[in-house]
Amino acid sequence: MPKTLSLSTTTLEHALLPSYETQESPDRLALMLRQEGGQYRVSDYLKDNEELRKKAAKPVDEDCRVKMCEWCYQVVDFCKFRRETVGIGMSYLDRYLCSDMGKQALGDRKEYQLVAMTCLYVAIKLHEPLEMETSLLADLSRGCYTEMEFANMEQKILMALLWRVNGPTMLGFVQQYLLFLPESVHSAVVVAVWDYARYQTEMAISDYTFVKMKPSIAGMAALLNAMEGMDDLLLTPKVVSKFVKTLQKYTNVDLEELNYAQSKLSTLMMNILSEDHKKSMIKALDKAEEEEWAKEYKAAVAAAAASRSPPSSPMRKAKLAQ
User: Fold this and answer.
1) How many Å apart are CA 279 and CA 80, to the nearest integer?
2) For residue 294, what pLDDT is reported?
3) Nearest to 90 by CA among 75, 107, 104
4) Whole-number Å distance between alpha carbons of 111 and 81
5) Is residue 210 left, alpha or beta, with left meaning phi > 0 and alpha meaning psi from -120 to 50?
6) Are 9 and 195 spatial neighbours (Cβ–Cβ below 8 Å)?
7) Number of other CB atoms surrounding residue 189 within 10 Å
């Protein structure tokens, strides 16, 4: 089972993507839909290159992608960049691995890591106000790669992508969809829906299932899940129903695919919540156990003081007995 990525909320995304005029939404959405079905399309590259991966000693798998995605989020959070930049970088990575030039990285984890780090570097360079130096990347790699290796890989990636680096993302579709909401919906409700949908897109970025899925469908699934979580008084069923019909009109979405995406996102959310609950329970039990050991040790100290014999830690006794 591949690992799932645990994410934390952030206020940084309220700097958001560029703002758009509502009247432009249908045309812009139509363009984004054409893009995702054309040069920005991504295939199931792990399955397509299964023979190549079988020949490798340590082939790239879904877990490798989760780990690199987690690393990317840590970097952008530390540098105070937008978390959406990770989604852009991962889209470069997925498209590069679909290319003839990039598929060789699926049989070499070291090269795969270099590609993933460089994709984030390119995304930051193009979509953030500050550029990350290749020297910093070399330091982050702990000496595994040189500045020249990152520069050469950047050139390879851009050539493989045919310099197409402004494709639609899940969060970009969410933003476009929200423009179709009626003005009667309170702005605070829109922000709440946006935040919950954004959180789900961040989860989806790390999950390989969504690599093969169109960003328009995954983004719509995240948005509808977010709306289902809102109180009916804040977002009435009538408004939601009209909104969904409008999206169907402009996207011709496959309802079966959409239902699958919603279900998958809900499962990911439940898994993360259960993992967080499990961690909190373990932490509480560890704390209780430490307190119990402390009580026992204090009792042993008191007994030793009374008998003038040196005390022995109960924890140490337990470890020696294991």
Assistant:
1) 26
2) 55
3) 75
4) 25
5) alpha
6) yes
7) 16
The reply to whether CATH 1.10.472.10 applies to domain 18-40+167-295 is yes
Per the listing, tokens 């959070």 go with: 77
41-164: CATH topology is: Cyclin A; domain 1 (1.10.472)
Tens digits of per-residue pLDDT, 77-115?
998 999 999 999 999 999 999 999 999 899 999 999 999
What would the pLDDT profile of 60-71 be if each residue is shown by its tens digit? 999 999 999 999
Question: Which amino acid is residue 269, in one-letter code?
Answer: M
Per residue in 119-141, pLDDT tens? Answer: 999 999 999 988 888 888 888 88
The phi and psi torsions of 43 (rounded to 5 degrees) equal -105, 175
Length of the chain: 322
Task: Report residue 177 as tokens.
Answer: 């969809």
- How many CA atoms within 13 Å lie on the side-chain side of 8? 7
Give the Cα separation of 144 and 111 in Å (integer): 10
Average pLDDT over residues 11-17: 46
The pLDDT tens digits for 139-156 are 888 888 999 999 999 999
What is the C-alpha separation between 271 and 64, in angstroms, rounded? 19
**Cβ atoms within 10 A of the Cβ of 116, count?**
25
How far apart are the C-alpha atoms of 59 and 30, rounded to whole Å?
38
Whether 18-40+167-295 and 41-164 share one fold: the answer is yes
The whole-angstrom separation of Cα 169 and Cα 40 is 10
* In contact, 160 and 153? CB cutoff 8 Å: no
